[in-house]
Specification:
The protein has about 280 residues and is of the alpha+beta class. It contains four helices and 18 strands. The strands form four sheets. Strands 1, 2, 3, 4, 5, 6, 9, 14, 16 and 18 form a ten-stranded antiparallel β-sheet that branches. Strands 7-15-10-13 form a four-stranded antiparallel β-sheet, with no helix packed on it. A two-stranded antiparallel ribbon has the order 8-17. A hairpin with an 8-residue loop joins strand 4 and strand 5. The two termini are about 20 Å apart.
Length: about 280
């Protein structure tokens, strides 16, 4: 488990703790989660219990508009700075539709600046401690009508790092709903350790968790969030998403942060330079 430093006050929180406040919280039936006051101690408790926590409206106004416009440039093929090898396309689409774009902060100061959002870093620091380093930045475009499935998986089997003190910040660039393929998290699955994975056959998400009876005992939470909101999830939390068959896109921008204790275990598995900038001291 992550070592959790003493908390600070002053934010708002949404977490799967809201399951307790909804009349119908059975598996696959959670439609939305409401905000409630919190302090960082509550945030850490929720994160440690569930392996994810949702914070509404972290990105707003001009900051959100600038970031959304740059994500549009990426998914529409207008970001000339991004090498072709950093793009993955939805299968069988004509014209080709971007599915994933990787390592954005290495090529654009707009994406690096957004990774340093003060509220986001304060939240992450309350869980991981400081200094914080940035590992990755990527877009999951989930385009309208053709956005493909993301199979159930943990992030850690993709990454050559130890210890497992890494958090993904999934930023909604659009309202994320059941209809357009919101992310679904299995609450508490991070406590199971690394689970066996097998090839998924899905382009852009090559691994899928092998069926485990312990997962059936846990609750999957489909998390609907407004654009600009952030889902923080542990690197061992099992999550997935359904295809997008709606007429609305569901763009997600993801940053992956690590504690200062994390080290590379196998440099040959890195697909980017082994440089992980400090984003918060």
């Amino acid at each position: 488990m992550l070592k959790l430093p003493a908390g600070r006050k002053g934010f708002k929180r949404v977490s799967s703790n809201a399951l307790d406040r909804l009349e119908d919280h059975s598996q696959n039936q959670v439609r939305s989660i409401d905000s409630a006051p919190y302090n960082c101690a509550m945030l850490r408790d929720d994160f440690e219990r569930d392996g994810f926590v949702v914070v509404p409206d972290v990105f707003t106004g001009d900051e959100l508009a600038t970031l959304s416009n740059e994500v549009d440039r990426v998914v529409e093929g207008r970001a000339e700075y991004l090498p072709a090898e950093q793009l993955v396309y939805e299968p069988n689409t004509e014209p080709p539709r971007v599915r994933n774009a990787f390592h954005l902060h290495h090529y654009s100061d707009i994406f690096l600046k957004a990774a340093k959002n003060p509220e986001l870093l304060e939240l992450l620091g309350s869980i991981l401690g400081k200094p914080l380093r940035l590992y990755a930045s990527q877009v999951f475009a989930k385009p309208a009508l053709v956005g493909s499935i993301v199979p159930s998986h943990q992030d850690m089997p993709y990454w050559p790092f130890e210890p497992y003190e890494m958090i993904s910040a999934w930023i909604a660039m659009d309202d994320s709903t059941i209809e357009n393929g919101c992310v679904r998290h299995v609450a508490g699955s991070h406590k199971l350790g690394i689970l066996p994975h097998a090839p998924s056959g899905v382009v852009g998400n090559s691994l899928s968790v092998v069926e485990d009876p312990r997962l059936k005992e846990l609750t999957e939470v489909p998390v609907e969030v407004r654009k600009g909101s952030v889902i923080l999830h542990h690197c061992l939390t099992v999550h997935r998403s359904e295809p997008n068959r709606s007429p609305k896109p569901r763009r997600g921008l993801i940053y992956v942060y690590m504690s200062d204790q994390v080290r590379v275990t196998d440099p040959s598995k890195l697909r980017q330079p082994a440089t992980f900038p400090i984003v918060s001291n």
